[in-house]
Write a structure and sequence with these properties.
This protein is an alpha+beta fold. 40% of the residues lie in helices and 16% in strands. β3 (115-119) and β4 form a beta hairpin.
Length: 591
Amino acid sequence: MRNSPLTRNWFASRVAVCIIFFSVTFITIAAQPPSEVEDPSPKPIKKVVVEDEDPSGTVKKKIGVDVGPISPATGGSGTVGNSPDVRLDELARAADAATNSTVKTAITKYITPFDRLVETSGTTRVKPIPIRKTEWPAKLEAVSVVPLDSLGKARDARAARTADIRSLDYFEALVLAEAESLIRQKLDGVSAIELQLSAEKLLAAGLRFHDYVRERNIRRGKGWDDVRTPLADRLRSLRLELLRLAMTANDSVRVREISSRLMNAYPKDLAVAQEVATARVGEAQRLLKSLAHADHLRAKSLLDEFESRYPGAGGDAAHQARLQLRELALKAFTRAREKKEIGDQQSARDELARAAALDPSVEGVREMQREFRFGYPILTVGVKQFPSKLSPSTARLDSEKQVVELLFEGLIEEVPDASGAVRYRPGAALSMPLAEATGRDFQLRTLEAGPGGRPGFESHDVVGTVKMLQGRSDTWQSFPLAWLAAEPPAPKDGATVRVLLGIGHPDPRAILRFKLLPSRWLQENGKNLDDAQFAEKPIGMGPFRLYQVIKPNGDKPREMVFIDNPDYGRWRDRTGLPYLREVRLIETSKL
């Protein structure tokens, strides 16, 4: 029987609907953005069955006790990888570098993490236990353990009867005890600071192991918090002791190395900030007494790194060190001018380079660099429409939006990718945000207010920026903030803020690119979001700042000149940036 036209049309329409549905579904799945934090792929959990007494005392029941994820080290299959629960590579490197046999043995023992199980039959090293002994069920008859041989290789899992277990010492406590024992040693050819550095490596590796297994639920239960605390506290105190020893020994290399570790590990610890301030500023002052330019540069680097992490913590001592650096830069620049006047161009360039390296903001340095075209790359860009409104909320022309990118930063920045897509990198934040259920936590690049009325920047400027933008939802910059929660961001302290999310967004990173304003400075000066004076002479945290607008002279076109922002390159991840020292926009319609 032949299909009627009506039947054929009905069938064709249904096929078309199905095709559209599956096409949309495929595109939607393919277009999902990558997650902000990529979780490791889950591994199968091996269970060992043991028998346990039924509460009635008459029937035995079988229970399964997890022994942890299967990995190559435990005899399972999978990709070989030295995760901290399997092998601590930093301890392997430290053991290889150790020249004393006692130190080497102490470190080597803990390359493979283990718990020490003491039974009536003897002592066994076992793969770290998932659940702390104090949290085992009261009627548990046996637990599954994975013994480790002398090389750290896992053997077959076996059941250990709880009645036979005399003690169970955890890896974290064993590492702590070993570190304390190592510190008390008196070994020929090994100094006290070297022993403490070895102990610090042990403690740091133990803490890394603990945090790794807790984050991945390899060790689970609240009982483990009490195991971490003494380990973390001792590591912190030992690092502070090491810093003081390095200062006493005038060991500048170790002062910088240890203080850097402290700054990275304890960015919000005020007590650590004071200790590091004493060390860094003291070392900088010592270096500034030298006659060598290289020592002066090291002093500047010490101050830059410290002040980027702990703004203002250096106090008057840091301020005086900065004044000394500026004085040295002024002297170098004076010598450069003198050499230039007598025609010694090479010596003038050398002295100019010294001045710029110590303090590029010294008046006249930039002009001489431009004259010599030495260490001063310039980018000249022709624009059809000359920019005039330069703040994020007033910019309309393409040239104005390009200027906004030079002057202002978002919490994170969008970067084109070679694949044609986009990726994100930290902007005014020190790193990519930590994802929380209610929003995103940011550690900020804070900045103190400077001379000449330069505004500072901290977490309350983020709060003020969001409030100002949400109050002007009609502006193009404010539109993406509709995805944020109605509540303003929540500052934890001056350098940390949580931006709260509201409506679900497929990629929250895209809405966190809004340009940050010096909102406290704007409010103190009675300026609003689209203030005309601020739009004419904006102040931001971007890589450049507005230097001057050159008015037309005769047939010459207008020019707008931007110079590198000296505050932008203060952080270690931005050393030497921006590479360009000047960007000039020229009105092409007058050419």
